[in-house]
Amino acid sequence: MQRGCVILSLVLGACGGASSGSTAVGESAAFEPAAFLAEIGADAAPPLFTRPTGSVEELDAARRQARGADRRTASRDLAVALMFDSWEAELREARRLRRRAERTLDAAARGNRDAELTAQLDFVRLWMSWRAGSESRSTRLATRFTTRHRAAGTLTTLAYMIRGELALVDESYDDASEAFRYALGQLDTPLYAFALYRTAHAHGGDGDREQGLQALGEVERLGCDDDAHVLIRRVAAAAAGELETGLRRDPDGVLRPASCPEPTEAESEEETGWRPAE
Q1: N or C: which end of the chain has fewer CB atoms below 10 A?
Q2: Cα 38 to Cα 47: distance, rounded to the nearest angstrom
Q3: Residue 35 CB neighbours (<10 A)
Q4: 173/176 Cα distance (integer angstroms)
């Protein structure tokens, strides 16, 4: 089996993306864990997941002019900008930009006593390392983060999800399940749906097809809720693709797994304003 590739059955496969099961309306998009987690991060901690306004030169100039806490915050923003630039650069230039970002993070950490900023700086370092594909270093940084920052909110949960992703790549499926378990208490959230979805892959990689399929079915059903968050629906669609259930577009315009209960006539009339001719 390819390293890091999880196969549950002929109809359920994952290497970070959904299989192309048939759908009633279109095709379910490939599911990319890093992009999904970035969307959650952008909502919870925008300064870390959104490129700051201004060029690196402008941000560096602002950092040099700032003092105290403002200078440390400006250093964080500069490091984030360098990280974003590294993703668009060629290999050698990308390494140079990451090294500069690391030095900037080190400078911001010196003398800092703000626990929230410390967590942010450590997370930028982790996120940058993981996105760069440095698996062993990322594992160390993620473990350190979850040990050092137990109360950093969504950042702590994201660090656990990264630990789970790294464990899947390493085919350490028990460790992956343990890491994903951190979010399984966060019911009705996209992180819960994500953790359950990836736990299904951990079960499949470990040879437990029944548990894997059961977990995928639970994820799929999350997409049936009328109030489901758009990100939950995305995970549910990925699960439906792997189970080859397919999707359908309901009268409210929402794509849901085809396995969801059909809307009643009364619900369809209420949502569309349509009435049958008398």
Answers
A1: C
A2: 12
A3: 9
A4: 5
